[in-house]
Amino acid sequence: MNETSVLWEETMHGGAAWSHVLKRGTALLITDLQGGANVGAVFYNFECPAERYNMPDTLKAQHIARLTKGFVLYSDMGRILCSITEDSVGWHDPIGGTSSAKLVDAKYGPSSYQEQRNDYHKNGHDAFLIEMGKWGLGPRDLASNVNFFSRVDVAQEGTMSFTQGNSKAGDYVGLRAEMNVLVILNTCQHPLDPNPKYEPKPVRVSIRRVAAPAPDDACRISRPENGRGFTLTERYFL
Amino acid sequence: MSGINLVESTLDPAMAIYSQVIPAGEPWIHAIKKGQYFRIVDLQGNQAVDTLFYNAHDYSDRYSAQDTIQQQRNIYLTSGTKLISTNGTVLLTIVADTCGRHDTLGGACATESNMVRYALEKRHMHACRNSFLKAVIEWDHGMTKRDITSNINFFMNVPVTLEGKLTFEDGISDPGKYVEMRVETDVLALISNCPQLNNPCNAYDPTPVQVLIWDGAAK
Questions:
Q1: Distance between CA A181 and CA A153 in Å, rounded?
Q2: How many CB pairs under 8 A join A and B?
Q3: A232–B73: do the CB atoms touch at under 8 Å?
Q4: b/e for A10-45, b at 16 or more Cβ within 10 A?
Q5: Cβ(B76)–Cβ(B99) under 8 Å?
Q6: pLDDT tens, position by position, B88-99
Q7: Rounded to an integer, what distance in angstroms lies between the CA atom of residue A172 and that of residue A35?
Q8: pLDDT digits (tens, 9 = 90+) for A168-225
Q9: How many CB atoms lie within 10 A of CB A87?
Q10: What is the mean pLDDT of residues B152-169?
Q11: What's the Cα-to-Cα distance from B137 to each of A167, A200, B27, B52, rounded to whole Å?
């Protein structure tokens, strides 16, 4: 991607939350700065947040339980919120969910702002709710999340296991907005990460201007379902 | 958890305090109390029963597919599975299961997802998320589409492969198979007896299911 197209960028600390309305015609590039990052993400149609990222619709339209370049993120309305146009990792987790205060306390021990200042332990559930609250969204709007840079394998009998070392320093994933998308992120550790230490990793977020998806766009032609998803998304803007 | 673990119930249907047949394509919404037992029977086999649960005292605290599979570290629901809410509440525990495996990744069909998955001309076909919306509107407690989240598909078989593919396999359920739950928190149960005709989740022939409730004393 052309560096000159960067509109702005910033670093998200480990354990931080972030939100932005990613406009149609722009893309978000997330870079794992140190390796081993986890970025929990939820997505809403900014104009009507009752329309939101839908995990099952995303998985079953594309017959996948992992995310990578060429796949798209579906809303519950048959539209594409974001396309994954770049990916150096190959596997991002759409099923593992996020951490809770209870899990973080049990895993890393209790913590508080008073004792640890800004290094107090954050959890994904609360991070999502606080950031969602800034946009008028609440617990009824909590939906299944994606975990970028993390990988959860499913064995034949259904057992889920976290793969360590899935993402290296410098790895990146790029999301092109196909609608005006409220993107809510946090850099809390993955709930299934066996690392016993609280050490959430930072990422770089970069907003760029990008071309509209062409008729032969890789995400659009990756399967007939996605072609129909793009048609429904483009109809929304007519 | 490994393989298929079939567990039968000792509860006698004649002793149930509630019994209702849900025809194919119909929704059902009902409050169930802590300590009661809740059974769903696949009367004719291979019928997907799309189900959501809410904490009856706070509908914003509701069944979470991701929290449920994360806590048991397994994507399939069966005997022993605790159905976990978004706030970490145990809503129900599966205590008997003669089918052996239930899905919670495949979600519910919708007119919109049918357009994506099958053809734009499929919009007119009846779908679970229309049934869910009809039920919560009639329930008249302020619930809306925001409350329709990732659901359970009882009796549906949706394996994930080692390569990260999601596949829809023929059902492993047969006539009379059932799943039974102990209710751990007062809940509101919401079911859409799936009308999908475009894939094998109902063997292309949606059929009725039965729901039964027992008081805890029956055990």
A1: 29
A2: 146
A3: no
A4: eebebbbbbbbebebebbbbbbbeeebbbbbbbbbb
A5: no
A6: 999 999 999 999
A7: 10
A8: 999 999 999 999 999 999 999 999 999 999 999 999 999 999 999 999 999 999 999 9
A9: 19
A10: 93
A11: 45, 42, 11, 15
Say if CB A222 and CB A71 are below 8 A apart: yes
Q: Which residue has the tokens 């509209």?
A: A212
Interface test with A, best of B52, B70, B111, B123 (most A CBs within 10 A): B70
> Using CA atoms, how far apart are residues A124 and A111, in angstroms rounded to an integer?
15
Tokens of residue A69, six digits = 């370049």
Question: In chain A, positions 114-173, which contact chain B (CB-CB < 8 Å)?
Answer: 125, 138-145, 153-161
pLDDT of B3 reads 61
What does the alpha-carbon distance between residue B48 and residue B153 come to, in Å, rounded to a whole number?
Answer: 6
Count other Cβ atoms within 10 Å, centred on residue A95: 25
Nearest to B112 by CA among B100, B123, B101, B128: B123
**Rounded to two decimals, what is the model's pTM?**
0.97
Bridge partners, A93 (sequence order): A147
Q: Whole-number mean pLDDT of chain B?
A: 95
Question: Which of B5, B137, B142, B138 is closest to B72 using CA atoms?
Answer: B5
- Alpha-carbon distance B159 to A59, whole Å? 12
Give B80 to chain A, closest Cα distance, Å. 14
Please check whether residue A76 is in contact with residue A54, taking contact to mean a CB–CB distance below 8 angstroms.
Answer: yes
Reported confidence tier of residue B104, pLDDT bands at 50, 70, 90 = very high
Report helix, strand or coil for A175: strand
> How far is residue B194's CA from residue B201's CA, in Å, rounded to a whole number?
9
- Give the domain range for residue A118: 3-236
**Tell me, what's the pLDDT at B172?**
84
């990422």: which residue's tokens? A203
Looking at residue B200, its pLDDT comes to 82
Residue B1, pLDDT > 50, answer no
Q: Kindly provide the ipTM of the predicted complex, given to two decimals.
A: 0.96
Average pLDDT over residues B18-41: 98
Q: What is the mean pLDDT of residues A5-11?
A: 96
* Total H helices, total E strands in chain B: 3, 11
If one counts the domains in chain A, the total is 1
Interface test with B, best of A60, A72, A236 (most B CBs within 10 A): A60
DSSP one-letter code for B15: G
Q: Which two tokens stand for residue B196?
A: 């999908």
Enumerate the β-bridge partners of residue A168.
A35
Q: What is the pLDDT of residue B173?
A: 92
Non-local CB neighbours of B51 within 8 Å, separated by 6+ positions: B40, B151, B152, B153, B154, B189, B190, B191, B192
Residue with tokens 């009902």: B30
